[in-house]
Amino acid sequence: MVMRFMSVEDMEQYLAPCVQTEGGVKVLNKAKLRGEPIDRLAYNAVFHEDQEQRGVTRALIREIAAQTGAVPASIQGLYEAMGRGEVSGFTVPAVNIRGMTYDVARALFRAAMKNHATSFIFEIAKSEMGYTKQEPAEYAVVLLAAAVKEGYEGPVFIQGDHFQFNAKNFKADPAKEADGIKKLIKKAVEAGFYNIDIDSSTLVDLDQPDTASQQRHNYEQAAAMTQYIRGIEPQGITVSVGGEIGEVGGHNSTVEELKAYMDGYLKTLPKGMKGISKISVQTGTSHGGVVLPDGTVAKVKLDFETLEKISKAARSDYKMSGAVQHGASTLPDDAFDHFPKCTASEVHLATGFQNMTFDHPAFPKDLTKKMHEWLHKECASEKKAGETEEQFIYKTRKKGYGFLKKDVWTMPEDARNAVAKSLEDKFDFLFKKLNVVNTKPHVDKHVKPVALKPDLKAEIAAAAEPGKPAEKDDNPRAD
User: Fold this and answer.
1) Distance (Å, whole) CA 165 – CA 201
2) β-pairing, 240-244 with 323-325?
3) Which residues contact 150 (CB under 8 A, 6 or more apart)?
4) Which of 66, 69, 55 is nearest to 25 (CA)?
5) Is the pTM of this model over 0.90?
């Protein structure tokens, strides 16, 4: 099948039986659109070599998604209801998709629809955007195309995960580092990321004499970024902002740290301004898990007691939705039903799905070989002394997503379907474990998506950024 459109006119002609474009976009035939047409639109939005074509295609997908009922949204209303105690008993899964994004998103939408759930989040971290070559505008549009393909109707929660400060850069030039985060936030919000996690926990200074002093740079920058977000969020939309108090992989967080952070944050934030809706903590996990010499992941003992204490304090003292657990995707299956029991509001999941993809029997062996050869050439400097081949590959293969981006997207259909089916089954399992089944009524009550008309010029401008090449990240943060 030829996926590429020759021109905008070629695209409009091809779509004529199912989408009217002259005089305004109008979906004429949803069923026909959900066949080959939406597949081709998604492909061209990502891979067409012409910037204008990519931008026009992305704007068209946004309009089509809005007309068919899939709208980027903020989860703020649901989280405020959690903070008031009106909604409880489930933990919202936030899934990072690093590659094969269209097919993986489709699998997640299918699992959600099967479970009558709309309380789930798509996310991508600052570091992931670079090594997977997925800028915010592209990522959001692919998710919306996947929603159209599967007939999903409801809010699409898209989140910027770990919009993180680099401690070394901040020390050298605080203003420059903060400006870089602001630029990323602006791109994300303009793309429809109405959920942003500010990770200034890297600025916590444990050499300071007391907890408040240790958290000072953390809460000051979180407040500054919150204020910036409030100034650029679209009319009628309150972006859900998250904060973080503990370096994931470091010492476990405490209620004392939560109070020091929040008291300082609220004093710094302008009076009357909406603050963060959730708080990320460290309870014993690490991003991607701890890799053993044979390439397997070490078992982790999670401190659910700490998670519960901080989550309850976040709600009772500060009316937030609760605590957020990072680095959870490589935990054993029997761990996941503990999250709703200890009232965690959100759990972040990424590497486990990557492992399922790359290790799947259907994943083409030639692509695995191609990726490994590239990793040995481009990431050789990242191999540590005494590290086994299995550990090196496990640690670096996430960067293979950017290198293999088109190869993975265009894998044989039977291979893509097999991988996607395994992921759909896993999503279905997690929805049940996290107790988000039948949560659609809660979301319908507390979340009112606002469909914004796409800005064609902005879409074309954003399409100029196909993503950065894979590179070493001094603070790689993604789950």
Assistant:
1) 8
2) unpaired
3) 34, 106, 109, 110, 113
4) 66
5) yes
Pairing state between β 70-73 and 92-96: unpaired
- Fold classification of 72-359+415-437+455-462 (topology level): TIM Barrel (3.20.20)
CA distances from 377 to 117, 372, 383, 396, 448 (A): 43, 9, 11, 12, 49
Where exactly does CATH 3.20.20.70 map onto the chain? 72-359+415-437+455-462
pLDDT tens figures, 29-88:
999 999 999 999 999 999 999 999 999 999 999 999 999 999 999 999 999 999 999 999
Torsion of CA 430, 435, 440, 445, to 10 degrees: -140
The owner of tokens 């894998």 is 411
Distance separating alpha carbons of residues 168 and 166, to the nearest angstrom: 6
- What is the DSSP pairing of strand 19-20 with strand 26-27? antiparallel
Residue 197 has phi, psi (to 5 degrees) of -100, 110
Please calculate the CA angle 274-194-149 and round it to the nearest 5 degrees. Answer: 155
Residues 6 or more apart whose Cβ sits within 8 Å of residue 417: 103
Q: 156, 134, 44, 144: which is closest to 443 by C-alpha?
A: 156
Q: What is the 3-state secondary structure (H, E, C) of 280-308?
A: EECCCCCCCCCECCCCCECCCCCCHHHHH
**Residues 194-248: pLDDT tens digits?**
999 999 999 999 899 999 999 999 999 999 999 999 999 999 999 999 999 976 4
Give the Cα separation of 51 and 430 in Å (integer).
Answer: 38
Bridge partners of residue 349, in order along the sequence: 95
Non-local (6+) Cβ contacts of 404 within 8 A are: 99, 367, 370, 371
* Residues pairing with 370 in the sheet: none
Buried b (16+ CB within 10 A) or exposed e, 92-101: bbbbbbbbbb
Amino acid at 108: L
- One-character DSSP codes across 37-84: HHHHHHHHHHH-S-HHHHHHHHHHHHHHHHHHTEEEE--HHHHHHHHH
Alpha-carbon distances of 71 from 143, 157, 213, 341, 439, rounded to whole Å: 10, 8, 41, 31, 18
240 CB-near residues (< 8 Å, 6+ apart): 74, 75, 76, 79, 159, 194, 195, 196, 277, 278
Q: Which residues contact 413 (CB under 8 A, 6 or more apart)?
A: none
- Helices 174-191 and 136-150, axial angle in degrees (round to 10): 20
**Which DSSP string corresponds to 320-369?**
---EEE-S-TTS-GGGTTHHHHTT-SEEEE-HHHHHHHHT-TTS-HHHHH
Q: Examine the pLDDT at 147 and tell me if it is beyond 80.
A: yes
Q: How far, CA to CA in Å, does 430 sit from each of 117, 157, 282?
A: 12, 17, 21
Structure token digits, residue 475: 């603070």
**pLDDT for the residue numbered 470:** 35
